[in-house]
Amino acid sequence: MQKSAQKIIVVLLLTLFLVFGAQAKLLVHYIDVGQGDAILIQTPQEKNILIDGGPRVAGDIVVNYLKEHNVATIDVLIATHPHEDHIGGLLAVLDVFPIKAVYYPQISHTTKTYENFLIKTNLSGAKRIQEKSGVEVEVDPKINLVFLAPEERNYEEVNHYSIVAKLTYGETSFLFTGDTEVINEEKMLENKANLQAEVLKVAHHGSRTSSSEAFLEAVDPDLAIISLGKDNSFGHPHQIVLDRLIQRDITVLRTDELGDIVLVSDGKSISIEPNDMMLVHVTPTGKKFHLVNCRMLRDNKIPLERKEALLKGYEPCEICKP
Ligand SMILES: [Zn+2]
Ligand SMILES: [Zn+2]
Known about the structure:
The protein is α/β, with parallel strands linked by helices and about 325 residues long. Helix content is about 25%, strand content about 25%.
């Protein structure tokens, strides 16, 4: 073979490696919407999935967040259940973004907000699909997204209709729970649903009506995300739930303490995307900064913004990787 031909082949192989060799990333954004939930998932093949849209007052926050993160179309919209702190903000989202498919629970909940939501999804031209446990959402062949709840259609509580979805990418997985409660957790355990996940979105903003010991045992996460507003009137998160998480050595990340939380998966492991505004903690004598419940952190911890910690010469802890 001629030298020039060899050169071309080498360049071609290098290009192929650069295009296909590097593992594409999955991003999961837990958007700080105050008291409520809004989660944006950007898949390896650049599809956008939005789970809930926060309360109505956070509509603009969600719309701007999506714009800032290059979302032009929402491929899949999941409205976990009709409560205002989950679907209120979706009214603004539906006004701005084209939506390809909407998944929502079959429930007659006649608030004005839910009525508007149904009217707007109808007008949007999106494919409307009523959820069911066992449904697989086909959006990106690189990931698997499956619904594990709700099982039945005759609950009294609106929260019991919450869609619970499990997302798997390579060896990493995320569980999204909406406001599901213990009755649904028991049903999923009874069904032997595959609940294990590295990251758990703690159900119902850390309320004691969810996150039973048996459920946490089955999910067995490393990271728990709680989406909630500072000083909310419900007393969320409840201490008993925090205690259960901490006893299991689960790292707890809260939107009321950290603001937006972004997790990145390369299919093998999950990391937290550094956010300069987020609060980290240092000690009077240590040289590292930590997440609030890092086991390396002692009692006399001092909170400061991540960017300030870096300016002062602290380095991120290798255990909690803030
Ligand atoms: Zn809620
Ligand atoms: Zn709810």
